[in-house]
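Input chain follows. Return structure tokens only.
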Amino acid sequence: MFGRSKPVYFNRYGSRRSRLRVPPWLVLLLLGLAAGIAGVLFVQERYLPPRLSAEETTKLRNAYEEADAARTQLKASLADTTKKLQTALAEKKSLSDELGATRTNGERLRENLASVVSALPPDPRGAPVEVRAGRFALEGASLSYDLILTRERAAKPMTGVLQLATAGTNAKGSETTFTSKAVPLSIGSHEVAHGSVTLPEGFKPRQTTIQVLDREAGKLLGMRVFIVK
């Protein structure tokens, strides 16, 4: 019982080693992180497009900047074209409105002219083409005229020619008649004819006979005599 005692060894670092032991959860976390990185690298290398080099990245950036500049320029061009189109549409609308107003005024003028023509005295001859009114003016060596011609029951315009046979005295004082060249015309229900005839030098007109023919030297469709004042 009281024999020789055995020596007892004291380890002063035992408790410190037990505190420095790596926890299992940290090991699992590190393993999971490594597995995740390895998975990402595997997927990137196997399935995703290859990674670009620095030179390729620079080229891609330059191409993007050029495309963006072109897009900006196209956007500005589109805005300018849109503005021009809107201006053209506005001008077209304005012209369309003016054309509509002109047509309305034209219709009103035609109606007024038809009313005036209907109020004129009839041609006493009652020919197929009636010379309802005439105005003549001597301007130097020219005789200008304005005539109103009408047709009854005119379904469509009729073509013909107009000639003026002007009687008067020539430069020597002799009586003579000057016949103008035939002027083509188209006669509907009513027609206003304007023109002028150049008279011979020294000719003094006294009266003019209006002749409406179906053609030059053809059938007489209407006539009337007017005094030139």
